[in-house]
Amino acid sequence: MSTIGVSEEIRYDRRRFLRNAAVTMAAGELVATGSANAQSSQPGSTKVSPIKPGTNTSFGALQQIDAGLVNVGYAEAGPANGRAVILLHGWPYDIHSFVDVAPLLASAGYRVIVPYLRGYGTTRFLSSGTVRNAQQSAVALDIIALMDALKIQTATVAGFDWGGRTADVLAALWPERCKAIVSVSGYLISSPAGNQVPLPPEPAFLFWYQYYFATPVGKAGYAKYLDQFNKFIWHQASPKWNFDDATYDRTAASFNNPDHIDIVMHDYRWRLGLADGERKYDDLEKRLAALPPITVPTITMEGDANGAIHAPSAAYRDKFSGKYEYRLITGGVGHNLPQEAPQAFAQAVVDVNGF
Q1: Which of 347, 346, 342 is closest to 55 using CA atoms?
Q2: Lowest CB count within 10 Å: 169, 184, 271, 303, which one?
Q3: Residue 20: pLDDT above 60?
Q4: What is the mean pLDDT of residues 144-154?
Q5: For the chain, where are the E strands, in sequence order?
Q6: DSSP codes, 119-144
Q7: Nearest of 238, 290, 226 to residue 262 by alpha carbon
Q8: Is-contact 331 304, C-beta < 8 A?
Q9: Residue 327: how many CB atoms within 10 A of its CB?
Q10: How confident is residue 40, by pLDDT bands cut at 50, 70 and 90?
């Protein structure tokens, strides 16, 4: 899961805390039914077809391409000459978060690219000597390299968790490459100094896994109980999403990547100042540490049952200076919004293209 931009005010709801505490204790016993209420589309925009979450279970044949430091595995859908959309997952998720979103966008005429991030699925580092680095700028540069390799000059970028953070970083550092973005949970760029600000006990409780990962036993525990650990996070982050084992297992296969554990550890340790970054990214990270505004058209989204800690929308509103809209998706939608509410997510992508 992704952390909040620490310059933003964290307002925490005690009832949500108690609910998540119960989920933590019960390892995901709390599930409920509910349907996502998609927001109305923009006037004149294409109306996305209704779809039941879980309708699709797979993509077509995956493709591979060298892009910068990695050979990226990705799914592609839609016409090759369509407007490009790049969909980015987070932790502990993978491209299957968009398995229902991609065909909706493809049918609307978009060229849809859904890559595995470094450390997931079939994406591999090209050199054994490359640092297994998960800095926010390094992950974003993978997407710029992917766009270059695929000869995509500009794209709408949409994501959640690490993917939402990456969309924000791309829009902040390379706005000329982003037509627009959709970011679940808003502004997720962080700074090393901001990450050192202590949190009150209740929100800190929801970051337990970051502190666990900071220790050698945490890394060993993640490796030993990988499947149980990530399923536990799914329940904590989406307490009302009644996913089945087959849904989880399709994503869990991507965690067998040989670099997965190192990438996850570096991501969270770097955020806490416990792992160093690479000097070649210092200039980019310095720019990000200033928490720059995002100028490209943006829709931010939130599920009404997101069990991951997140800032209220008002806290990050002034970080978006271009055309902007916030959407709250109701019906028990949790952290994995694209998979839990694919119609609403796809509609946001379509609509932001019309801004």
Answers
A1: 342
A2: 271
A3: no
A4: 98
A5: 63-67, 70-77, 83-88, 110-115, 124-125, 155-159, 178-184, 298-303, 324-329
A6: TSTT-EES-TTS-----HHHHHHHHH
A7: 226
A8: yes
A9: 22
A10: low
Predicted confidence (pLDDT) at residue 56 exceeds the cutoff of 50: yes
Q: Could you tell me the CA-to-CA distances from 128 to 122, 125, 259 in Å, in that order?
A: 16, 7, 10
Domain ranges of the chain: 14-353
With b for 16 or more beta-carbon neighbours within 10 A and e for fewer, the 84-113 pattern comes to bbbbbbbbbbbbbbbbbbbbbbbebebbbb
**CATH for 14-353 (3.40.50.1820, 3.20.20.70, 1.10.287.620, 3.10.690.10):** 3.40.50.1820
- Residue that the structure tokens 């890559």 belong to: 115
Question: What is the number of alpha carbons within 13 Å of residue 97 lying toward its C-beta?
Answer: 32
CB atoms within 10 A of CB 226: 17
pTM over 0.85: yes
- Mean pLDDT across the stretch 43-61? 91
Tokens of 301: 């989204």
Orientation angle between helical segments 136-149 and 282-289, nearest 10 degrees:
110
pLDDT at position 192 is 87
C-alpha atoms less than 13 angstroms from C-alpha of 294 in its C-beta half-sphere:
32
pLDDT of residue 2: 66
